[in-house]
Amino acid sequence: MIRYVHLDKNLTRQLRRLHQAGGRSKSAAEHAEAIIRQWLSGEIRRPKQSTRSTRFGETRIKNCFKYDLVEAYRLLAVIDEDHLIFLFVGSHSECDQWICHNIGWKPGVMKRRNEILPVRRTSMKPAAGEGQSEEGNEAEDYILREIDEQDLRIIFAGICRSRGNRGAGNP
Questions:
Q1: How far apart are CA 141 and CA 125, in angstroms?
Q2: How much is the pTM?
Q3: What's the rounded Cα separation, in Å, for the pair 95 and 54?
Q4: In angstroms, rounded to a whole number, what is the distance separating the alpha carbons of residues 117 and 111?
Q5: Contacts of 110 (CB under 8 A, 6+ apart)
Q6: What pLDDT digit, counting tens, does each position of 3-52 carry?
Q7: Are 61 and 78 in contact, with CB atoms under 8 Å apart?
Q8: Domain ranges within the chain, ordered by starting residue
């Protein structure tokens, strides 16, 4: 499951350039931003979940996939464990050229220069009226984000051991 979305520094510039160009380019930028928002909101959880991903994906870069945008533009992304990295947006030929120049690209190399955004976890929210505000959920998610199953096993094993040392009659 994707927990973080990275926006490459160059992608941000490319989106700005497409907006400034207007017309079809602006429509492509807006479409790319809509896909990114869907990932951030948790609405999309797998690349093929969107109807706009390309049929054949991309084999020249490991774990890479492309989205078809309006007017033959493409949005290029890579999955690295629980991170989704949006790398490039441009025309079909620009995207192909970027891939040719970056064959064998490794995700870990560029993570530092990316804008990193957490993905909203929709399944963890309490039902309406359960007493916790939306802000409280975000703070709790932030704290719990780094706790994995192995950490929980260690914590609960320690709790069980300490209860066992108190004796059967003591709470």
A1: 10
A2: 0.66
A3: 13
A4: 12
A5: 8, 85
A6: 999 998 899 999 999 999 999 999 999 999 999 999 999 888 877 666 56
A7: yes
A8: 4-122, 126-165
Distance CA 66, CA 52 (A): 9
Give the pLDDT band (50/70/90) at residue 101: very high
- Nearest CA to 16 out of 38, 33, 3, 41 is that of 33
Amino acid symbol at 30: E
The secondary structure of the chain, three-state, reads CCCEEEECHHHHHHHHHHHHHCHHHHHHHHHHHHHHHHHHHCCCCCHHHCCCECCCCECCCCCEEEEECHHHEEEEEEEECCEEEEEEEEEHHHHHHHHHHCCCCCHHHCHHHCEEEECCCHHHCCCCCCCCCHHHHHHHHHHHCCCCHHHHHHHHHHHHHHHHHCCCCCC
The widest CA-to-CA distance across the chain, in whole angstroms, is 76
Nearest to 89 by CA among 146, 132, 25, 153: 25
**30 and 39 in contact (C-beta within 8 Å)?**
no
Residue 42 near residue 5, CB atoms below 8 Å: no
Task: Locate 157 and state its tokens.
Answer: 């094993």
State both tokens at 171. Answer: 């709470």
Q: Which CATH class is domain 4-122?
A: alpha beta
